[in-house]
Amino acid sequence: MMTDDGKHDDDDSELLLGTQTDLAGADDVPTSADEAETANETLRRVQKEQFYKILEKKKAKSKKLIPQDEYNDALKTLQGWKKGEKHTRKQSAHREKYDIVPGTEATALRLKTTQQKIATYESIFDIIFDKHSALSHSRDSRKNYDMVNEEYYGVTEAHVKDFVSICPKCIPSQNPIKAPKMNPLKMIFSATVGCRAQMDLIDMTSQQTKDGYKWILRFIDHHCGYAHVAALKSKTAKEVGDAVICILGVAIIPEILQSDNGGEFLGECLRLIRK
Predict the structure, then answer these.
(1) Which residues of the chain, if any, have pLDDT below 50?
(2) What pLDDT, on a 0 to 100 scale, did the predictor assign at position 125?
(3) Backbone region of residue 34 per phi and psi (left: phi > 0; alpha: psi in -120 to 50; beta: other values)
């Protein structure tokens, strides 16, 4: 985790390392379906413990979240509500703010104004876990948050970021956290097609195909936005270079070919392009 001054928090590093250590045996191949299910439950339990340790350390309880006991009180109030009876101010406030989600056998609350289900502090891990799994462990925190926010009220994007940062399936492909550089942005303008092209790699390791393809090379003309793509099994400079040559064979060769400083665009890749 990053502190406000941009430094890496050692305590959070210990939490993260602790997660990886606790899950070190998770790569062992289970001998039965029951053992596989048990291993998955252990993974989930350890991750849940680490998640709430981080929230407690950061005091990340959202003002929108209500504790489980208050949720239960509100649910009980709505379940037993009878017109004409006297109710406390708190019960009336619950009645005004919440209603029961249809089709849930009166066991779930939602916000009247937005129709979102109510998330409690105790339930946010399970909510994010289910949505993150449905997105095939996408590491895009915003995409995960948007999916959660469509259905639930109270979960923040910060909660989602903390969850993704300790996901056992996402940790191996995460880059080290770096302090953001707040340099002024400079706009780049391309006068015509073929003036400048940009290329980068899209990480699809969480959705690897059966035949081993897990990266997408994207080559896009900066002026018109026309793009070419190529599926890759790895991001070695040789494989990336071969794919770029194939794209250049059918695309307009640009005056400037732009990429980031990744090693996959250097060395052998550069040699093949120049040749």
Answers:
(1) 1-10, 12-17, 19-21, 23-29
(2) 93
(3) alpha
For residue 4, what are its two tokens?
């406000």
Please give the structure tokens belonging to residue 222: 């900066």
In order of their start, the domains of the chain are 10-65+119-173 (no CATH), 68-117 (no CATH), 196-274 (3.30.420.10)
Mean pLDDT for the chain overall: 81
